[in-house]
Amino acid sequence: MLSIKIIATGDFKENYLREACAEYKKRLGAWCRLEEIILKEERLPDNPSPSQIEKALEAEEKRILERLTPRSYVIAMCVEGKQLSSEELAQKISEIQTQGRSEIVFIIGSSYGLSNTIKSRADYKLSISRLTFPHQLLRVILHETIYRSVSILQGAKYHK
Hints:
There is one protein chain. This protein is α/β, with parallel strands linked by helices. The protein has one domain: Alpha/beta knot (3-Layer(aba) Sandwich). Helices cover 43% and strands 22% of the residues. The protein has 5 helices and 5 strands. The chain has a 5-stranded parallel sheet. The longest helix has 20 residues, at 135-154. It is globular and about 50 Å long.
């Protein structure tokens, strides 16, 4: 069975977002194992300097790297990533499985993104949109996107 992990930096502040993710996780349970790993976001002042941001990203990077294994196919969620249709993402997931990779890990950074080291470690860079979303809302969108892609692979009617 396909195993998908979502590693996200920073937890929800709103319950309705948490509930939306829980609903998609429940729906996915029939087709794959979905695990969410929520990591602490580094605290920064209101107007952080570039060096403070870099230091925070490095601290978050360390916690993310500890959660990856050599068998993980890592997809970094970042603005410079490739935008895919639902069908294209479904195809990508299918290709990853065909390569014998049993675990796909999506990584969502904090409000300042991901470190360059994490982006370099990624096997693929994915962008949901050129629009800017709060990273907490992006988690909901990613859950739905994964659900839609897996439902396409399963031939379910959800995608219609």
